[in-house]
Amino acid sequence: MSWLKKNGLTLILLLILLIGAGLIAYPSFANWWNSFHQSRAVASYAETVANMNTEEYERIISKAQAYNRKLSRSGILWTLDEDEEKEYKEQLDIGTSGIMGYIDIPKIDVMLPIYHGIEESILQVAVGHIPGTSLPVGGKGSHCVVSGHRGLPSARLFTDIDKLVEGDTFTITVLNKTLTYEVDQIRTVLPTDLSDLQIEKGKDYVTLVTCTPYGINTHRLLVRGHRIENADGDASVIADALQIEPIYIAPFIAVPILILLIIGMFIMTGMRTRRRREKRQIYSQMRVKDGKTEVR
């Protein structure tokens, strides 16, 4: 109890230091953690695709393209009934927990899995395809809309898409095909304004949607790209997907080391205090008798 009284202030300061370090490290650590799982999800998807055969590719892609052709005639379905929702969820489903593909935006260095739907549980960790819009397999008369959060302390997601400008490119990979889109329009609109998300005859669009202004979220930022020709390649991203930026790993490594150093310093201080106390006890027991030093 006496030890606690003597070291109470030190313990409080240590606790404050640890809490402060945790608060500072949380965004980077959480971002690293989510980036790691996003990369694993993309790698898992690519690995599943690599184990499929050509017939499976063609069957799934053909079904998705037929879905898009139907939408090009009817227009985007902003609300789905039960049967339409069931049909939607069966599209591009290869048994990878709802992932239909992934998006890569080189300029802002993000690669994110695209899930069916825009439930909050999805948007907290990845990006979602808005149901009722065209599927991300391209084709004339298609307009795929993908939504993601920005400004989350736990994940970058679409935080930096406001840095994109006309002429920048991004890619969407579905199964073994990679489609490239060039940004041609950037708009800020009200949440109820859907005019820029409609299908246009003969056009192949993908629009990225996020909230704006940063932290206020009263409007929507729409970054639209049109498809450009590219050499469709295999989705061999397993090795690249597992690469994580050092800035996200550093706090994860540094914080535990900092904590261990603080604990080590605290232990060493305690040991020195104990040794001084023992020495004082020994000195208090010593006396000089007949010119000789004795210990009582």
Give the helices and strands as they follow along the chain. Answer: HHHEEHEEEEEEHHEE
- Category by helix and strand content: alpha+beta
Specify the biggest β-sheet. 8 strands, mixed, barrel
- Average pLDDT value? 80
Bin the strand percentage: 15-25%
Helix share bin = 40-55%
Number of beta strands: 10
CATH topology: Sortase, Chain: A
Strand order of the largest sheet: 1-2-3-4-7-8-6-5
**Terminus-to-terminus distance:** 28 Å
Low-confidence stretches: 231-250
The CATH superfamily turns out to be: Sortase
Shape: elongated
Rg, Cα atoms, Å: 29 Å
Task: Please describe what this structure looks like.
- The chain is α+β, with helices and mostly antiparallel strands and 296 residues long.
- The chain has a single domain, classed as Sortase, Chain: A (Beta Barrel), CATH 2.40.260.
- It is built from six helices and ten strands.
- An eight-stranded mixed barrel has the order 1-2-3-4-7-8-6-5. It has a two-stranded antiparallel sheet with strand order 9-10.
- Helix 4 links the parallel strand 2 and strand 3.
- Helix 1 runs antiparallel to helix 6.
- The protein is elongated.
Helices and strands, with pairings:
Elements: H1 2-50, H2 54-74, H3 82-89, E1 99-105, E2 110-116, H4 120-123, E3 127-129, E4 142-147, E5 169-174, E6 177-189, E7 204-212, E8 219-228, H5 238-241, H6 246-285, E9 286-289, E10 292-295
Parallel strand pairs: 2-3, 4-7
Antiparallel strand pairs: 1-2, 1-5, 3-4, 5-6, 6-8, 7-8, 9-10
Helix pairs in contact: 1-6
